[in-house]
Amino acid sequence: MRAQLAHRPPTDVLICGMSLIGCEAALRARAAGARVMLTEAGSTPLPSWTSCLRPWITCRERDALPKHWRAVFAEASHRSLDADTDMLHLGILSRATEDLLLDAGVELAYLSQPAAAALDAKGHVTGIALGGKYGLVVQNAGRIIDCTTLAAAARAAGARAHAVTTPQRARWSLELATPHTGPSTSLAVEGGEAHWRDRYCELDLSIEAPTGPWGYPDLIAELRRRARLIIQQLRERQPELPIAVAHEAERILLTAHEHVDANSTAIAVLGPHDGREHVTEHQLHQFPAQRLAAYDAPITACTSSWSPDTPVSVALRSACSAQRAAQTVSYHDPQFDDNGPVMTLDMAPVAIADEAAVVVAGAGTSGLPATIACAKAGLDVVCLEGRSAPGGTHTVGGVPFFWYGRWTPGISSFHDQLRRRCEAEHIPQQMAMDVALEETGSRIRYAVTSVGVERSGTRISTLHVVTPWGLCAVRAQHWLDASGDADLAALAGAAYTYGREHDELTLWYSHATVRHGEVEGSRHFLSLIDMRSLNDTTRGIVTARRQDGCFGAGDRPGFLVTPRESRHISGRARLTYQDVIMNRYWKDAVAGFQSNVDLKGLAASRMILCGLHEPDYLRTYTCMAPYGAFVPRDLDNILVLGKAYDACHDALSMARMQADLASVGLMAGHACACAATNSCDLAAVPVSKLQNDLVAAGLIYASDLLPGGSNRVTPSEHELPMIAERLATGPMELADQAALLSAGTPARRALEAVYRGSVKYTGQRIAVLLSLLGSDKGADQLLELLDTALASPDLPVAEWTPHDLPDHGRAPEPVRWIHCLAAIPDRRLIPRLHLLVDRLELDKPVCDSRWCYIHALAEAARVLGEPEIAPALHQVLSAPAFAQVAPVPAHADPRVGISVPLERYLYLQLCLGRALCACDDPAGASILEALAGDQRTALARSARKALAATADPLEV
Fold it and tell me: Is 221 strand, coil or helix?
């Protein structure tokens, strides 16, 4: 096979797995002078504590650790459970461990697990291909150490494994809704024991040793099933014990069921699979000193001779190889190049581990209902989930409520069934979702990440995934991409936009921490993250862990990074902000959305920037989405679900609520059934038949399919004069104004005919609409309004906002007039911009109305492109507010760029740099060049894009 994937610069030592032993090996390698990269498949260090929810340590275990680890656990200890055991604050334990590693100079990489070994021309192992949402990335290293659960790196390199005869055990914990106030209690259960400690129930069960690519994923599913049965048994036997489950552990801790021969490969194995002795996370003090002593010796650096143009690997090998016909597989997103240069390598064929009629990638808000709907339709379906529990944002993402959404009978029934099961069995939604999957007979594979695609023409034929065992492949006829980020479609080469159309800014992400007793995670909406990037994903996790959420800090770290926006796949139809506001009629409507204007970030459309936005934060809008928005433009047998379908940045803010995305998943299941019945690809599904099925299932209403009423169409030319006259004589709904704008030039002529600038309010409204339609007839009135504001003693300030600015387009009115005048464009705006800068008090970087004014100045200057505006831009850049604003180098400590105001002012610096370039000032290029190497991928890529070419004018 031929494999296309990215290459990172090599490091001296690569350690896979952030176990206690892995972290200690990283510290010793750093002490010896080596450059070290430490990877982890999850999003927390020390996973046997943080991910397996074991928030205690005995004093004997802690006191036997090296001094620096005793300090870490002492910092995380917040109270004694008994004389011998301390309870741990898992959030503090995660941060303290990261601080220890980062202070030592260790490079961290989260959500990355070994998938294959990289070989040189002589067959020697030179590195590991790491798998994650970014695909596969080769990380070459002079020395490789495997501390993973199943010795995945060593297996991929060809290490020999030998079965052990000792009983196999699995251990993990359930967090209880009510603490156990008595002493620690142990009870025998089927296959093992249950131990109560404070508010945790630890399960210690005998297991069958996992084998093959699906061994570990299937083991997780089986253990989750057994846990539900044990809960039921315990409630019957010991009703006085608190056993209502609130949360589950993210990971299962396994004993070694095989020993890997460390002498059979160049990869060192430390931990439970090293073939010498069983080592748990709590026995580092018993680990022979000579095993780690090698890292005290000098290590020869391997980075000096590397060049991005010189490949250091010529082949890949995985643990699950098989004889297959030659194919080319893409392990990278061709639109994203920040993970290193892309190379084409030889690769041993990857085994086909499963086949199905439908493969659903992701068991989250869209993927789980899609899987259930496919199975109920009689289709052979397999669901691949990256975490070890279903639900995604709705469960491990810490957002358990469907805040908004269109509660059709179909989605209400789906949700009510889950809720009733949770209440009846005292289990969290994750477990209820397991039951729902089992009852339909669908298969789910946990701990599976999609990393590569084989494509034949306009069809995806095979998906490559990485499991804790290594790489394997899955085949299907139809694909539902419910990854949340269009991972499958992007790996297949589908075109997309990313975030805000004018740059790569997205809605803010969250890595929600959880506090005991709180159902909802303590989310934060403060920063940006680009999960296409290995580095930026890790930076976002490290940064989020050090910021309080909306409910403060949590007791334990979050498991799931939850972007609210990433890719917008280029579909066969696109949902825009204007479509949402006017509830545009679509002939192929298949899904409904209902939400408030929940932007949480900077707007992109002129309608919002120029003031045509909804001022009532709680008012909801309903809109329909067309089937074409879910079908990639150049792929025929896949639908993109979740938040990555084709909707523009501003539209997505109102068309991404969880109830609605669940409804989209159910719609996709019906589409697969329709495709199977008609023996066609998903792109060719007879939409009228699909719509009838959706109406019958209660997912949409028959009225949604009829033009008129709430479903607005573009007004006809003979209707426009009456509509314009109505606007000139009184208030008009925002939805009707949006419909008016959709008429284009005829609407412009109708508005010009009724415009009367002397009428203060109606004239101002029409002047704004005219500017959006490219007419300067209302410019004089807008300039007069702006002059009045600039002459007032105090500049107008922003309306109330629920989050720090920028948010919801809620800017002072003069900001909107500036955007309107720039849209025309009107050069008379230039002297007003200079006056505005003189009025601004830029003493410190504060995210208030001043932020909006600076952004409007920069955007107006970029659109006008007049050199005489440059002095005003330089005046802003020299103000004290920008004195602390400087890019953070790409390889700097990720804790450096944690200040939210400075990050947002750095974005303003990017806008000002773009504006200077448009004004032919060479200082703009210097600003952009400095930002092009910033640690935050969104800012860096936007700067590089601006350097390559000035951004297009803002869209209407």
Answer: helix
Q: Read off the pLDDT band of 956 (50, 70, 90).
A: very low
pTM of the model: 0.94
Closest by alpha carbon to 560, among 364, 429, 379?
364
What does the DSSP 8-state code read for residue 562? Answer: B
Return d(Cα 916, Cα 924) in angstroms, integer.
5
Please tell me the distance from the alpha carbon of residue 425 to that of residue 933, in angstroms, as a whole number. Answer: 53
Alpha carbon of 645 to those of 397, 490, 533, 654: distances in Å?
20, 12, 20, 13
- The answer for residues whose C-beta is within 8 angstroms of residue 387's C-beta and 6 or more apart is 250, 396, 446, 447, 559, 560
Q: 6 with 112: CB under 8 angstroms? A: no
**Could you tell me which residues come within 8 angstroms of residue 259 by beta carbon, excluding any fewer than 6 positions away?**
161, 162, 164, 273, 274, 275, 276
Axis-axis angle for helices 734-741, 760-772 (nearest 10): 40
**What SS3 state is found at 694?**
helix
Interval 395-440: pLDDT, tens: 888 787 777 899 999 999 999 999 999 888 888 888 899 999 999 9
Structure tokens given for 353: 């581990």
| Secondary structure (3-state) at 664 | helix
- Residue 471 CB partners (closer than 8 Å, separation 6+): 115, 116, 131, 156, 318, 319, 320, 350, 451, 464, 465
Residues 893, 471: Cα–Cα separation, whole Å: 31
Residues 6+ apart with CB under 8 A from 747: 715, 720, 724, 740, 741, 769, 773
Q: How far is CA 494 from CA 531, 665, 786, in A?
A: 17, 20, 45
Cα atoms in the 13 Å half-sphere on the side-chain side of 791: 6
Residue 88, phi then psi, degrees to nearest 5: -110, 140
- Axis crossing angle, helix 870-877 with helix 900-918, rounded to the nearest 10: 160
pLDDT (average), residues 617-643: 95
Chain centroid to CA 145: 29
Nearest Cα residue to 786 out of 845, 723, 830: 830
DSSP letters spanning 452-521: EEEEETTEEEEEEEEETTEEEEEEEEEEEE-SSS-HHHHHTT--EEESSTTSS--S--B--BB-TT-SS-
In the prediction, which pLDDT does 301 show?
Answer: 46
b/e map 711-745, b = 16+ CB within 10 Å: bbebbeeeebeebbeebbeeebebbbbbbbbbbee
CA 623 to chain centre: 25
Query: What's the rounded mean pLDDT across residues 817-832?
Result: 96
**Percent of all residues in the chain with a pLDDT value above 70, rounded to a whole number:** 92
Give the residue from 671, 694, 691, 689 showing the smallest Cα distance to 681.
671
Amino acid code (one letter) for 10: P
Q: Which residue is associated with the tokens 């004004």? A: 919
CA 24 to centroid of chain Cα atoms? 30
Residue 162 β-bridge partners: 259
Give the Cα separation of 843 and 845 in Å (integer): 7
Distance, CA of 818 to CA of 858 (rounded, Å): 10
Measured distance CA(698)–CA(693) in Å, rounded:
9
Asked if 174 contacts 201 with a C-beta cutoff of 8 angstroms, the reply is yes
User: Using an 8 Å Cβ cutoff, are 569 and 632 in contact?
Assistant: yes
470 residue type, one letter? G
Rounded to an integer, what distance in angstroms lies between the CA atom of residue 45 and that of residue 52? 11
Per-residue model confidence (pLDDT) at position 807: 63
Q: Alpha-carbon distance 373 to 367, whole Å?
A: 10
Alpha-carbon distance 323 to 158, whole Å? 17
In tens, the pLDDT along 686-698 reads 999 999 999 999 9
Do residues 52 and 173 lie in contact, with contact meaning Cβ atoms separated by under 8 Å? yes
